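Fold these two proteins, one after the other.
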Amino acid sequence: MLSIRAVRVGFKGREAAYRLGTLCSFGSHVAYLSSRKITLGREKQTETPLRSPVWSCNEWDPLEEIIVGRVEGAHVPPFTVEVQARTMKRYWDFHIYRAGQPYPQAHLAKAAAEIETFCYILEQEGVTVRRPAIVDHSMEYTTPDFRSTGMYAAMPRDILLVIGDEIIEAPMAWRSRFFEYRAYRSLIKEYFKQGARWTTAPKPQMSDELYDKNYPDENDPNCHKITDQAKFVTTEFEPCFDAADFMRAGRDIFAQRSQVTNYSGIEWVKRHLGHKYNIHCLSFEDRNPMHIDTTLFTIAPGVVLSNPERPCHQIDLFKKAGWTVVHPPYPVIPDSHPLWSSSKWLSMNVLMLDTKRVICDVDEIPTVKMFEKLGIKPITLSIRHANSLGGGFHCWTTDIRRRGKLESYL
């Protein structure tokens, strides 16, 4: 029983009565909360914990559920400094002329058909396929710091980083991708309600301070000097990162500083995940890095693909741990095929269904043969027109659930 002793300390009449009443009310509330706490405690003991539908610790455990991106509504991004830095000179006119407009419709129609085939094959292999919502990427939006139109919801790997039972929404670094998360929110909320953890990384302002306005293009005589000095179009003004600059291998996660991921962004991920994970910041002989999965790719326990054109400066980290380092063959995609936002090395941007099955490009015969020699069954198809939008099989997806457990491999 709650006992309250009223002591006169100079209050009179109504004021004293009011304060005594307040104390009594507070005491009753405390008593209620105490009893409520006990009740809630009992309820909690009988509740069945939610089993998260999200669980993925690496790139090779048996795949059960995946998000595949959408072609619908894809628009060419405005040709801002951060986009220009990553665009080959021969595609500048395309981007300048079509900025804020849809990609060529005939090309998009072929890309959409390829992605539908991709989804069908995944389902035939026993994988549950989920898709983002269709949103209007043509809308112009304004923040206090910039104005832009959108791009697409084609590459979920760029924006969603799945670590164990947690989905991390990446902040991104392109202004045209600021609101891209909206296409995935209905899926993420569904996963959250079912027990998944959900974190949104701090959204950057994307003000002018985040970008080096004087960053040279590929024809600038200072370009190689900038590369040698490890300078990038994004500054350290605030954390930014794309999820695709992180490669998972259990408790070890490999990251790279790139045109869209800065050291502050990598540090944020490191602090957020804590001591349970080891974040290894790698660097490569790559003058224009963006997204690690066409440069270094972990395909099985102790096996890593390393791009022969972009050697890893820390490759001994893998060799000393007994890993097999495989250099994939050079891509065979013809120069005539448009790659508006990517390189030919999408040939190694594959999707592992497990350690014995891989989805890869039917036309990249040398890569197909490489997997066969490794004892991995290639499941082949072409998404060449989808490649033009900036990604391969890995980029076009985010694995939501793989059957396995969290382990250390280094």
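Now the second one:
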Amino acid sequence: MAPSKDTDGSETNIPAPAIAMGLSQASKKASTSPKDAHPSGKRGHGKAMQILRGLAFTIYFLTCCVTIVITQVLGCWLYFVNRDIYYDYMSMTKRLFAITTILMTQIWGPTTIRISGDESVAGEILPTEGNGVQFNFPERIVMIANHQIYTDWLYLWWVGYVNRPSAHGHIYIILKESLQYIPLVGWGMKFYGFIFMSRKMAKDQPRLAYRLGKLKQTKTDPSGKTYRVPMWLLLFPEGTNISGNGRRKSASWANKNGWKDPEHMLLPRSTGSFFCLNELRGTVDYVYDCTVAYEGIDRGKYGEDIFTLGSTYFQGRPPKSVNFFWRKFKMSDIPLDNADEFDLWLRNEWYKKDELMEQYLTTGRFPAMAGSKVDFVETKVRAKNPFEILQVFTIVGIAGLFWHNVQRFGGVVAKRFGFSA
């Protein structure tokens, strides 16, 4: 398929998070002007406690990441024995990373998740006992969302964790090529099968086609039944998180083309999304759209200036709530035969999302849940059981125990035959 012309005139058109993990935010500071009080209130901790929290956070996160990467390396040999087993193993390590970030958020950056959706997702988002939530999304979907701040992906990954069937081991994200070189995190993401792009479609199209081709393959189980592997492909059609500079560029492009300029969004870039959906056509039935809003980001403000890693995880000032409004589209109803028609469709859907954001900013809520006894499902990002984190260390622990016993056995044998000193 020949690449279609991008609507914003830029080659940087692959829909993806601007940066994985929000690592660059560690050094970025929120506004400290007296008139710009933080929406989550005063710092929850003094300087000394912030340092201790930062140290504990760093030790926890690095320990888990190092352990997960070691676990991945220990399973590399499976690639040459059985590819299906290898990919299942790496999917397991992806689940471990999801558990790591969920417990991390539960401890250091607790927040309320407030969820609703229109009639298209009625019955697919259910409250559970203990103020929990259960999503009933399919095993194979494409998920699109507006990009508010760098950690959007974290909360959307959590949705896979509380989905039935669980999907947190089957998330795939399209990322900037440079992110694969981040020590530990970048290495782990390569094992996860995330898709790294230079964001120049002429260069990226063959790579993207290859990776998506893997995700749409038909497999056969031992009984002869055919199936496709579970897959949640996460796309951010805006291409980057919203910021002052991004809004100016978006407004300029809208003015140049005579389009309406969304007030609370960036104009979406259609080329990458069009290519991805066409590649997966016939293997995915639905596209799920999530409109994301953070409590405390006022009109004309930007989340990257307010909810940094420092304020969220160290100062004790996470967003008071993260708000989701879900919609669903049948792939068969999306105009995928013509790039221009798709561009118009995507832009119109983004205008609808902009209207949803306007309602949120005006009332503090998205529309209530359609077809449900409750208007909103409110819950927390939390692990089902805090001891789940021990799974992160299971494989490495077993490997260490095995190696220890091999050494002991070797020592006994050597002593028995007189080889020891």
